[in-house]
Design goal:
Length: 250
């Protein structure tokens, strides 16, 4: 097992891509803190599923956009498992609006959850890793829109663009502490975030026409790459952004 003995915090892990990554990490032997904000039932059900399969997991509520709630997440991990080896900054929201109509309130909502929260949560986790002198891995779940502009979705796109450079900056500063920092940038992966828009046949066909591999991705497509980037298989990878998009950016 590639993550035996490792402890991982995964934000927004009650559902969607975060839940897929949690299942994959548990299969590889990691102990998990399954963070959620609103989806308590989903998170607790996932924890029960993981525990029933012989791995260790706890659920912990925290709004990653509120910096005051980060300490609770760190304490949950260290109290339950004694250490933190991996952080996955997965939680995110979008607030779609044409640029001419976007509001400062929307800016704050998106940037708090998608950029400021991940930055300062990574700082909290890295401080624990540095104090323990143990190394570690931070994985940011970004988006193809860290590279590609997205009409009527500038707030999310700008936050993800910031996350891409955040990955590089943190990788540079944390390398001497043996902490690797990478991004996974998904293309179109079927989850609650896009289920409604992808159920529109015309929109779905338009998206499919842009994906050379000819299908919408699933959470398992991302989970295997996540395991690579946080395990020793990825020991020489830091500061990288991996696009998991079926070739969409091509
Ligand atoms: P999703 O199905 O909409 O789920 C979003 C997750 O984020 C939920 O678990 C939610 O938790 C959590 N979350 C939202 N606000 C939070 C907060 N303030 N504090 C803590 N957790 C919060 O999204 P997804 O598709 O799985 O997306 C996961 C990641 O992949 C995101 O970073 C997203 O930008 C990225 N991504 C997804 C796609 C795609 O096609 N699906 C494409 C590109 C990038 P609660 O339900 O508990 O509130």
């Amino acid at each position: 097992m590639k993550l035996a003995g490792k402890v991982a915090i995964i934000t927004g892990a009650g559902r969607g891509i975060g839940a897929g990554i949690a299942r994959a990490f548990a299969r590889e032997g990691a102990s998990l803190v399954v963070n959620y904000n609103g989806s308590k039932d989903h998170a607790e059900a996932l924890v029960a599923e993981i525990v029933s399969q012989g791995a260790k997991a706890i659920a912990c509520r925290a709004n990653v956009g509120r910096l005051a709630e980060h300490d609770g997440l760190i304490a949950a991990a260290t109290n339950a498992f004694g250490r933190i080896d991996i952080l996955v900054n997965n939680a995110a929201i979008d607030r779609r609006a044409p640029f001419l109509e976007a509001t400062p309130e929307q800016w704050e909502q998106v940037v708090d959850v998608d950029l400021k929260g991940p930055y300062f949560l990574a700082q909290c986790v890295a401080r624990v890793m540095v104090a323990a002198n143990q190394g570690g891995a931070i994985l940011n779940i970004s988006s193809v829109h860290d590279e590609q502009a997205h009409r009527n979705n500038s707030l999310y796109t700008i936050a993800k663009g910031g996350m891409k450079l955040m990955t590089r900056c943190l990788a540079l500063e944390l390398a001497s502490h043996r902490i690797r920092v990478n991004s996974l940038s998904p293309g179109a992966i079927l989850t609650d975030m896009n289920r409604a828009v992808l159920s529109d046949e015309a929109y779905r066909e338009k998206v499919l026409s842009m994906i050379p591999l000819g299908r919408i991705g699933n959470v398992e497509d991302l989970a295997s790459a996540a395991v690579l980037l946080v395990s020793d298989d990825g020991a020489y990878i830091t500061g990288s952004t991996f696009y998991i998009d079926g070739g969409l950016l091509l």
